[in-house]
């Protein structure tokens, strides 16, 4: 039997930009991506703590040490700069492996989205 489990999570980052005129995605500081074990093009769930919105899109890397979290395209309508988000990716695995699996959990500095 397989189950879907949390693979990676970036907990409580602030939106730094919203670009409606960009082809859809979320831009994430590449340092945060590495820490969370996210990869370019990976599907992520975005949970907006400020307004309750939940959506899915894919990741594009942003400049390192920038703290950038920018929602692009239609997703830009679901956030405001300064909103607090949780970014989550999931994976499927055998249930016995899932019982032993430890996801990558990242808790950046909430003031600037940088790793401390």
UniProtKB/TrEMBL annotation:
<feature type="active site" description="Proton donor">
    <location>
        <position position="58"/>
    </location>
</feature>
<dbReference type="GO" id="GO:0015940">
    <property type="term" value="P:pantothenate biosynthetic process"/>
</dbReference>
<keyword id="KW-0963">Cytoplasm</keyword>
<keyword id="KW-0456">Lyase</keyword>
<keyword id="KW-0068">Autocatalytic cleavage</keyword>
<dbReference type="InterPro" id="IPR009010">
    <property type="entry name" value="Asp_de-COase-like_dom_sf"/>
</dbReference>
<comment type="subunit">
    <text>Heterooctamer of four alpha and four beta subunits.</text>
</comment>
<dbReference type="GO" id="GO:0005829">
    <property type="term" value="C:cytosol"/>
</dbReference>
<keyword id="KW-0210">Decarboxylase</keyword>
<feature type="binding site">
    <location>
        <begin position="73"/>
        <end position="75"/>
    </location>
    <ligand>
        <name>substrate</name>
    </ligand>
</feature>
<feature type="modified residue" description="Pyruvic acid (Ser)">
    <location>
        <position position="25"/>
    </location>
</feature>
<comment type="pathway">
    <text>Cofactor biosynthesis; (R)-pantothenate biosynthesis; beta-alanine from L-aspartate: step 1/1.</text>
</comment>
<feature type="active site" description="Schiff-base intermediate with substrate; via pyruvic acid">
    <location>
        <position position="25"/>
    </location>
</feature>
<keyword id="KW-0566">Pantothenate biosynthesis</keyword>
<dbReference type="InterPro" id="IPR003190">
    <property type="entry name" value="Asp_decarbox"/>
</dbReference>
<dbReference type="GO" id="GO:0004068">
    <property type="term" value="F:aspartate 1-decarboxylase activity"/>
</dbReference>
<dbReference type="Pfam" id="PF02261">
    <property type="entry name" value="Asp_decarbox"/>
</dbReference>
<protein>
    <recommendedName>
        <fullName>Aspartate 1-decarboxylase</fullName>
        <ecNumber>4.1.1.11</ecNumber>
    </recommendedName>
</protein>
<dbReference type="GO" id="GO:0006523">
    <property type="term" value="P:alanine biosynthetic process"/>
</dbReference>
<comment type="function">
    <text>Catalyzes the pyruvoyl-dependent decarboxylation of aspartate to produce beta-alanine.</text>
</comment>
<comment type="similarity">
    <text>Belongs to the PanD family.</text>
</comment>
<keyword id="KW-0704">Schiff base</keyword>
<keyword id="KW-0670">Pyruvate</keyword>
<keyword id="KW-0865">Zymogen</keyword>
<feature type="binding site">
    <location>
        <position position="57"/>
    </location>
    <ligand>
        <name>substrate</name>
    </ligand>
</feature>
């Amino acid at each position: 039997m397989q189950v879907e489990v949390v693979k990676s999570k970036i907990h409580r980052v602030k939106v730094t930009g919203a670009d409606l005129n960009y082809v859809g995605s979320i831009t994430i500081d590449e340092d945060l991506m590495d820490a969370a074990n996210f990869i370019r093009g990976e599907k992520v769930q975005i949970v907006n703590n400020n307004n309750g919105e939940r959506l899915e899109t894919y990741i594009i890397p942003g400049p390192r040490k920038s703290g950038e979290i920018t929602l692009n395209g239609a997703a830009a309508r679901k956030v405001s700069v300064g909103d607090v988000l949780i970014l989550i990716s999931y994976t499927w695995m055998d249930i016995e492996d899932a019982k032993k699996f430890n996801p990558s959990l990242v808790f950046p500095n909430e003031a600037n989205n940088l790793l401390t």
